[in-house]
Amino acid sequence: MIPCIVSQTPMIIYIFHFLIDYSELVFTVVDITTTVILYLSAKKTALYLWEKQKCRKWSVDVSEILLRPKSLHWLPLHVAAAYLLNPLTVATCVARSTCAFHNLLLALLMLATQHNSIMLSAVFLALASYESLYPVVLLFPVILQLAQKEVKGKLMLQNPYLLCFILEYTVVFLGCLSILLMLSYSLLYSSDFIPAVYGFILSVPDLTPNVGLFWYFFTEVFEHFRLFFICIFQLNTFIYTLPLIIVLSDHPQFLMFIQIALLAVFKSYPNLGDVAFYLALLPIWSHLSRYLRNSFLVLCLLLSCGVLFPILWHLWVFSGSANANFYYAATLAFSTAQILLISDYLYAFRRREFHLKYGTDIKTQDGRKMMVELK
Amino acid sequence: MGLLSDPQSRERVLLFLIRHNSKLCILCYALGLVWFLLLPLPPLSAPTYISENALLPGLVKREFVGGPQALSLSREFAANKALVGGLPVEWLNKTMTSLGLEVHTQTFAVDLPFPDEINERYHVRGTNVQGVVRARRAASTEALVLHVPFLPEANDQAMGLALSLAAHFRKQVYWAKDLIVLVTEHDLLGIQAWLGAYHGINLTSLGVRSSELGGYCGALQAAITLQLSSDVATSIDLQLHGPNGLLPNLDLPNLVHHLCLHAKVLCTVQELLPPQEDNAWWQSMHIMLLQALGQASTKPASEHGLFLRHRVEALGLKAINSHRQEKASLEKLGRLLEGVFRSLNNLLERFHQSFFFYLLPSLQSYVSIGNYAPCAAAILVVLFLCAVELWAKLNPEKERRTREAAASNPASIPWLSVIGSIVIAHGLGIALYLGPLVAHQRAANYFDLPEDEAVSLTALGIGVSSLSLPHRGSTPQGWIWLKLFALLELGMLLLALDLLNFPLAFMLAIPTVPAAVVSQPSHKTASIALLLVASPAVISLMGLAMKTELNPHGPTSGQLGGFIGLFLRWLQCLSQSILEHQSLGTNLYPLFTLGLFPCWLQLWHVALWKE
């Protein structure tokens, strides 16, 4: 339970052994690389969405909600701009947070998955999970995405090809992960790094205030309930995977986006770089905007949190007149805004799918216009 | 969540908001105002109490008998002051050493960005003298400060009293904290140089050169700044706020008030008598408004203010000698101070128990942040409601949109004219911030003006000329986007300010919010009139007028009355606020120029938008 001095993986420490003198340059280059990779990945995603739209059958009157080639053309550029020009990305870069590396790995993972490269996607997934553990849950969207090309027949659990593919991919992924862990072991000749990195992530010993929900709760909670609540909080991070897989099994792209966003909210040490990453993916789903309902509220909440965070931090830590409760209130508002945003996108996606299937103009039996609800 | 996910109830709420928008806006605005007016009344203002148990003010025994010594020391000090024609450093050194203090001096030099005509200084050179009473049985990890600012024409008795108190304190064995008797020159500049050297940081953009400070005493726990210019006093006035509306922890004024009651010395805030039974509301409101105006000016109430910025709780005590019957001698005041310092000596940790955000309608009652925050919130909600209405106008509910309307191109955002206006407004804000400092020299030479007048006239010139810049919108819908942006920016600005300096935020919100809500091209006259009232210049002018009107002493002699006098004083205040921003780090000027002015200018563009 003692906070570790270093909670980075041995590889990162080893790499920075050589790069520390050029760290400004390194972080800038990493951010630009991430942007380029996101651009390529978004290009591929746009193509994928277009292909998918072409080869499916739609209801009669859905032409207005279909994707248009013109909007798809500009999509990759919007994604790249949203990442590189986001003030949060710039702040993360200036702060030299290793989050930049996590974002790079996630972007690479998305690109490899888009290109249906089993080996590379497994390598990047293993690297991302090795770095910050939580990306393990992206295993499911990645498998679903790859299985669409690789597996014959329907994607049902009864399908032996699918089971075989899942097994195969998992073995490759675990193989990569164990090689990484082995390499780390050979760097240190000790396995101390496992509790220092993954124990640090899972048991949350460091309660330094951040933009997440853990720190305040675990400074307040009684010591003998700590383990129980840690389990609950960590379970909360992972639990959404299963229902989301069931609901979105046909749309692994969207599943992946929602997963990444949820991790950024619920992980134990979230930071603004994670938020910047999933915000950059929003332009891919801009065709959902007509079904978004709380966008203005979320915009106002996010903006005011952006103002409140530095001010409440200043009042609490620097001038000593406010206290932790003020800052935590801003954290709560920030998390609420993000959850609203994510659930809004989920709703909009489901709603659009519904309309694509049944048409946009649906009437109830007594002839009134039907309302679609998310329950 | 039901409200946010159920489309039917959602639609109903939204329709309700849009249909009754103007009524709701007026209701919220009125609620905010009425709430503020009700603040001095009992359910909202609670009786004060001492929250920090460790202070133990009732248990302190007062033994100070150095009244005559204080008087003779102050006479001697005055004589030496007259002899040297400034701070008699030599004499102070000698006297403090003979009284058994550990003496250190610090010289400092500050160059102001332009000559300060009011205080007649430009290149400031000064000396601070610091005498330390070391606690015999402690390790010099904590200290208290008794601060006496040196004034050329006053404050001699404060010096005498501080010195004789220090002599008395040195003989006592109960000290757990060191005591620093600090004498500073050039009011705020001196104390800033000392605090900067003590903590090893410089909080302003101005370079302060000061010599090395000797005799560190650990973390400063509290500071009292003393002003006393007569041999007897009728009352003690507490001066609370520091720069940028900072306030000391409420326990500190409560402590002094409690001890004053004990010693039967009249204790006041804002130099006004405590509210009486009849007309209590107006008297409390008067005190509260004066505090609010003081905080809104972002200027410290006295020299103690700069301590607050270094997280040292501090209070200014100003002894007043009026025509009242009951007079307190120097000895009585000395005992009062002894009580204050012995209570502070009892502190076990930093002041943290009581409130840091409060308004004082009197010394007997306080309004906590929880009670005054609703009026700020109610007024901010007006901006939000107006923004929601505009948003709904731009994005008619997709459910209700007919297919024909959807098929036709939705109005595209006129990016060029909207962003152009935003950039122009912010660029002019920056020009207004930097302009006076860059161009004042040239203006002063060209028009043959004193430099500080040149500074304020340059600012005024830039401000007025920026009104005439192009603001030709080309599209009918453009102004809605611009107004939406301006409303959000104003809302964020006021939200941030509500937390940092509530009185300032509230005073800005009262005129700007209605102007922001009303401004649109179709109500040109009304919006221009409201915007003119809400312009940064008029707001600050009104604040100044209000301060003059509420000032218990009335306008000081030698000042011109009427509007011309007010305007001339406003020009002076303008150059002073630039100077204070540069030398002390108060943020009124950057707030007005970089925050409020661009918002206002965007709304001005909205009102003059060509449809």
UniProtKB/TrEMBL annotation, chain A:
<keyword id="KW-0256">Endoplasmic reticulum</keyword>
<feature type="transmembrane region" description="Helical">
    <location>
        <begin position="197"/>
        <end position="218"/>
    </location>
</feature>
<dbReference type="GO" id="GO:0016255">
    <property type="term" value="P:attachment of GPI anchor to protein"/>
</dbReference>
<dbReference type="InterPro" id="IPR009600">
    <property type="entry name" value="PIG-U"/>
</dbReference>
<protein>
    <submittedName>
        <fullName>Phosphatidylinositol glycan anchor biosynthesis, class U</fullName>
    </submittedName>
</protein>
<keyword id="KW-0337">GPI-anchor biosynthesis</keyword>
<feature type="transmembrane region" description="Helical">
    <location>
        <begin position="160"/>
        <end position="185"/>
    </location>
</feature>
<dbReference type="GO" id="GO:0042765">
    <property type="term" value="C:GPI-anchor transamidase complex"/>
</dbReference>
<keyword id="KW-1133">Transmembrane helix</keyword>
<feature type="transmembrane region" description="Helical">
    <location>
        <begin position="328"/>
        <end position="347"/>
    </location>
</feature>
<feature type="transmembrane region" description="Helical">
    <location>
        <begin position="296"/>
        <end position="316"/>
    </location>
</feature>
<keyword id="KW-0812">Transmembrane</keyword>
<dbReference type="GO" id="GO:0006506">
    <property type="term" value="P:GPI anchor biosynthetic process"/>
</dbReference>
<feature type="transmembrane region" description="Helical">
    <location>
        <begin position="12"/>
        <end position="40"/>
    </location>
</feature>
<feature type="transmembrane region" description="Helical">
    <location>
        <begin position="254"/>
        <end position="284"/>
    </location>
</feature>
<dbReference type="Pfam" id="PF06728">
    <property type="entry name" value="PIG-U"/>
</dbReference>
<feature type="transmembrane region" description="Helical">
    <location>
        <begin position="225"/>
        <end position="248"/>
    </location>
</feature>
<comment type="pathway">
    <text>Glycolipid biosynthesis; glycosylphosphatidylinositol-anchor biosynthesis.</text>
</comment>
<comment type="similarity">
    <text>Belongs to the PIGU family.</text>
</comment>
<keyword id="KW-0472">Membrane</keyword>
TrEMBL record, chain B:
<dbReference type="GO" id="GO:0016255">
    <property type="term" value="P:attachment of GPI anchor to protein"/>
</dbReference>
<dbReference type="InterPro" id="IPR007246">
    <property type="entry name" value="Gaa1"/>
</dbReference>
<feature type="transmembrane region" description="Helical">
    <location>
        <begin position="526"/>
        <end position="546"/>
    </location>
</feature>
<keyword id="KW-0812">Transmembrane</keyword>
<feature type="transmembrane region" description="Helical">
    <location>
        <begin position="21"/>
        <end position="41"/>
    </location>
</feature>
<feature type="transmembrane region" description="Helical">
    <location>
        <begin position="484"/>
        <end position="506"/>
    </location>
</feature>
<feature type="transmembrane region" description="Helical">
    <location>
        <begin position="413"/>
        <end position="434"/>
    </location>
</feature>
<dbReference type="Pfam" id="PF04114">
    <property type="entry name" value="Gaa1"/>
</dbReference>
<protein>
    <submittedName>
        <fullName>Glycosylphosphatidylinositol anchor attachment 1</fullName>
    </submittedName>
</protein>
<dbReference type="GO" id="GO:0042765">
    <property type="term" value="C:GPI-anchor transamidase complex"/>
</dbReference>
<keyword id="KW-0472">Membrane</keyword>
<feature type="transmembrane region" description="Helical">
    <location>
        <begin position="454"/>
        <end position="472"/>
    </location>
</feature>
<feature type="transmembrane region" description="Helical">
    <location>
        <begin position="371"/>
        <end position="392"/>
    </location>
</feature>
<keyword id="KW-1133">Transmembrane helix</keyword>
